[in-house]
Amino acid sequence: MKKLFVLFILTAVFLSACGSKETTPVAAGSGTVTYQSEDGPVQVPANPQRVVVLTRFLTGNVMLLGVPLVGVDEMSKANPNFQEKLKNVEVVTDESIEKIIELKPDLIIGLSDINNIDKFKKIAPTVTYTYGKVDYLKQQLEIGKLLNKEKEAQAWVDDFTARTKKAGEEIKAKIGANATISVIETFNKQLYVYGDNFGRGTEILYQAFGLPMPEKVKEMTKKEGYFALSTEVLKDYLGDYIIFSKNADEDNSFQNTETYKNIPAVKNGHVYEADAKAFYFNDPLSMEYQLAFFMKNLLGK
Question: Is residue 197 part of a domain?
């Protein structure tokens, strides 16, 4: 019966879109607003109450603004900072068409390269973003516009900008304006170092704080935003301070090598380990966590 019901709903939503290039769903009792998306204007609920976010990169952006979520990706659900708030939220992917129909979303948010976007548009208004097209602050403002909470988004941007500016000045005064810092992480058994806009606190360290990265890191992460490291070249990429976004499930055996142990930052006790599962992203909630981590470890606050 359940499969028949889902099939019926699928047929209904697809047929309702026939003969019309663009659907205009109406949120119950709240009307719609026009959002200027990357792909043109989209009619979205003025007060969305059942949002599905198909990308881990934007879950925290929506959560910060207090908009109810009914579906998120698996990594968002596993984020220690999100677990309590998302405990009753379903895990979905861009292949979960039937499941998402059952969730009855009034808005779907994803990245521009998601699968099945045409199907999603027939279920609910769907808005996508190109990852990295705008910086983390502008991204939050865009989500604020989408959710009709632009003032709240702007308030966070202004406050976070002021707090990171102050913290950056204090950190430079303490560790030295020229002290370099590197962000590393083991992912799928490979050690990586990250550039200035790849989550893991890099936006805060390099953009907001204005701390320098080692020249080699700057050079090799310019194109992709990250660079794979071998143990032999570690000394060229690890700065005076190291942030290690550490996943305990990964192979972190490089820490046991003499090469790593002899790196100045390691010998000086300037390595700070963070929980990778809470540290991956550059959404506002993750960045609040990262900021608190940096202030505790680099300033002792």
Answer: yes
d(CA 110, CA 94): 9
Dihedrals phi, psi of 268, to nearest 5 degrees: -90, 0
Within 10 angstroms of residue 59's Cβ, the number of other Cβ atoms is 28
CA dihedral 26, 32, 36, 39 (to 10 degrees): 0
Count: domains in the chain: 2
Average pLDDT over residues 263-273: 97
Q: What CATH number is associated with residue 288?
A: 3.40.50.1980
What is the pLDDT at residue 230? 92
Q: What was the pLDDT predicted at 30?
A: 60
| Window from 18-27, 64-73, 280-289 with minimum mean pLDDT | 18-27
Domain assignment present for residue 164? The answer is: no
Q: What is the DSSP string of 72-93?
A: E-HHHHH-TTTTTTTTTSEE--
Domain annotation covers residue 245: yes
Query: For residue range 189-240, what is the model confidence (pLDDT) as tens digits?
Result: 899 999 998 999 999 999 999 999 999 999 999 999 999 999 899 999 999 9
List the domain range (segments joined by +) for residue 116: 2-148
215 lies in some domain: yes
What integer is the mean pLDDT of 171-176? 96
Confidence of residue 26 (pLDDT cuts 50, 70, 90): very low
